[in-house]
Specification:
Layout lengths: L9 E2 L3 E2 L11 H4 L21 E5 L5 E5 L11 E5 L4 E8 L2 H10 L10 E4 L2 H12 L1 H14 L5 E7 L5 E7 L7 H11 L2 E6 L2 H8 L23 H6 L6 H4 L14 H8 L9 E4 L2 E9 L4 E6 L6 E4 H12 L30 H36 L1
Parallel strand pairs: 9-10
Antiparallel strand pairs: 1-2, 3-4, 3-6, 5-6, 5-7, 8-9, 11-12, 12-13, 13-14
Helix pairs in contact: 4-5
Amino acid sequence: MGCSNCGSGTINGNKPAGCKNNGNCGTTGCNKLNTYDWLSHIERPVNYKPFNIVEIRFKGGRKEYFKNSNNIKLSVGTLVVVDAETGYDAGEVLLTDELVRLQLNKRGITSEQVDKKIQRICNESDLEKYYKAKEKEASTLTRARTIALEMGLSMKLSDIDFQGDNRKVTFYYTAETRVDFRELIKVYAEEFKVKIEMRQIGFRNEAARLGGIGSCGRELCCSTWLSDFKQVSLNAARTQNLSINMLKLSGVCGKLKCCLNFELDTYMDALKHFPKTKNLTLVAENGEAHLQKIDILKSLMWFQVGEDSNWVPLRTDIVKQYMKLNESGQKAPILNAPKTENSSTPTAIREKTDFMSSDDLLSSDLVGLDKKTKQSQGNKNNKKHKHKKQKRDN
């Protein structure tokens, strides 16, 4: 196939020539929801029969499974013609052989449920029709948005997908409430002269289709590798001691970030070692120590003794020992905050570095100036001495 970004041709009709990695480049258009075939370099047995179901990817990361009944030799990145509900569609081969069997088991699909077939590898006429359909998507989406606004429908058209044979177009939209678009479909059919399908998607799916850059500076997880959207709640942020600021906790989709669930299990396992009390108070010999904050990953608990502004850090195991002492009627030892070095007091020992301090630079400059002044004064004295000697000789 030829990548839509680089617009290049193919190598022997199998792999894109524009990608230096031949189909595994790092751009969003080529590796969206990609799957690494870690069985590709393993030799198969002599009597091995390849699995005849192939995973095909379409625009927006949509994946479907098709039977390779004609035993066509396929490789990752090949653009093929497949069956569709009306006519045919064109998609890219994403995964073949045994990994497809594992993907079907993961999704709970049996091989008997896969009834659509791969017709052939795209020829020049198929590619020409396919790229013409894709070139019309931007202008068609702009015109469709204008029509929806003129009709006063409270919906947002986010993406569009033309079928490979240019006979059908699917509009993806998001809306807060139910939208009656029966009249809209009639207008679209008269305007674009193709079969129209309206498909409502969620805000997370919209972000996954459109892509973007997250607050971390990387591509969105939902548009590169994340396919299962799990529920995210504010309890995940509270468990990780994050400030409840919706501007920072929300992603580009307007919902809570999916990455709040990534490290949640680690924090929950670490919290098991902490005392299960919210307002913890330790009775020490120098007063009562009230819990102020905890550092979950470092297993530290910070206490304030009396009205002292300096907090005392204690490990969780030590806190549990002091709690047992309090339960038995004894007081914990004196809790002192760690000594911090005051920046206003001069340090007795200065660390040796490769860089010179400002005092050293100043002193070196003064030494250089003294040398220059002494040299100039010596030259003047020599000139005066020579002048007097000449007068005496005369």
